Amino acid sequence: MALPPTSPLLDNKLIMGVDPGTQIMGYAIIEVTGQRVDVLRYDVINLKQYGSNHAVKLKKIFDRMVELIEEFLPDELAIEAPFFGVNVQSMLKLGRAQGVAIAAALSRQIPYVEYAPTKVKQSVTGSGSASKEQVAHMLRQTLKLPPIEEASKFLDATDALAVAVCHHYMKGNNVKAGGKSWGKFLDENPDRLASGAAAKKPARAKAK
C-alpha cells in the first residue's frame, strides 16, 4: 500500500541551495517528502547596490543567509563550487562569497556539500554543458514552476534551485561538517532561538 505524501513515515527534509555571486546570489529552499519535492522559495540576494565595496557585500551575504536559515530551518545546505575561469580576481571574490555563505550555515550547525557546476547541470538536464536557460526550462517542467517576469533574476534563482535539486538526487551522501540541522540544534538549545523565530518547520510558502 502506497503511503500518502503527508505520512509521518516518509522522510522529510528541507534543503537550501545557493548559487554564489558577488553581484547577484541565488538561493532556494525545497522540502523533500519521500520522492516529492515542493519549492518553498527561490529568489536572489541583490548586491549590486553596494558597488565595489566587497567587504559590505560579504557581510550582507552572511546576514541574509542567517536570516533565511532562521526562517526556514533547513536541514542541509547545497552550494555550487566556483567555476574556474580566467579572471583571477573574480574567482577570488566569488570564492570569498561562497565561503561566507558556508560560514553562515556552519554558524547555525547546518551541514553542507559543494557541487561542481557541471554536476548540477548533469543531474538536472542530463548534460553537463547545458545553458542556464536549459536548466531553468527543465526545472519549470519537472517542478511545475509558475512563470517569472524578471528573466535574469529567474535564472539566478533557478540556478540555486538546481543545486538544491541536485543535492536531493544525490541523497545527501556527501554532506560535510556534522549531521545536525539548525532545527535540531534549537530543540537542544532553546536559549539560542533568535527573537521572533519559530522553532519548527515552516508551513509551505509560495515560491517567489
UniProtKB/TrEMBL annotation:
Gene Ontology biological process terms from the UniProt entry: DNA recombination; DNA repair
Binding locations of Mg(2+) 2: 80
Domain of life of the native organism: Bacteria
Group of enzyme by EC: hydrolase
EC number: 3.1.21.10
Gene Ontology terms for molecular function: crossover junction DNA endonuclease activity; DNA binding; magnesium ion binding
Entry keywords, A to Z: Cytoplasm, DNA damage, DNA recombination, DNA repair, DNA-binding, Endonuclease, Hydrolase, Magnesium, Metal-binding, Nuclease
Location within or outside the cell: Cytoplasm
Catalytically driven reaction(s): Endonucleolytic cleavage at a junction such as a reciprocal single-stranded crossover between two homologous DNA duplexes (Holliday junction)
GO cellular component: cytoplasm; Holliday junction resolvase complex
Necessary cofactors: Mg(2+)
Active site (record annotation): 19, 80, 156
SUPFAM superfamilies according to UniProt: Ribonuclease H-like
Pfam families assigned to the protein according to its UniProt record, in alphabetical order: RuvC
InterPro entries cross-referenced by the UniProt entry: RNaseH-like_sf, RNaseH_sf, X-over_junc_endoDNase_RuvC
UniProt-annotated binding residues for Mg(2+) 1: 19, 156
Cofactor binding note from Swiss-Prot or TrEMBL: Binds 2 Mg(2+) ion per subunit.
Summary of subunit composition and partner proteins: Homodimer which binds Holliday junction (HJ) DNA. The HJ becomes 2-fold symmetrical on binding to RuvC with unstacked arms; it has a different conformation from HJ DNA in complex with RuvA. In the full resolvosome a probable DNA-RuvA(4)-RuvB(12)-RuvC(2) complex forms which resolves the HJ.
Function of the molecule: The RuvA-RuvB-RuvC complex processes Holliday junction (HJ) DNA during genetic recombination and DNA repair. Endonuclease that resolves HJ intermediates. Cleaves cruciform DNA by making single-stranded nicks across the HJ at symmetrical positions within the homologous arms, yielding a 5'-phosphate and a 3'-hydroxyl group; requires a central core of homology in the junction. The consensus cleavage sequence is 5'-(A/T)TT(C/G)-3'. Cleavage occurs on the 3'-side of the TT dinucleotide at the point of strand exchange.
Family stated for the protein in its record: Belongs to the RuvC family.
Protein name: Crossover junction endodeoxyribonuclease RuvC
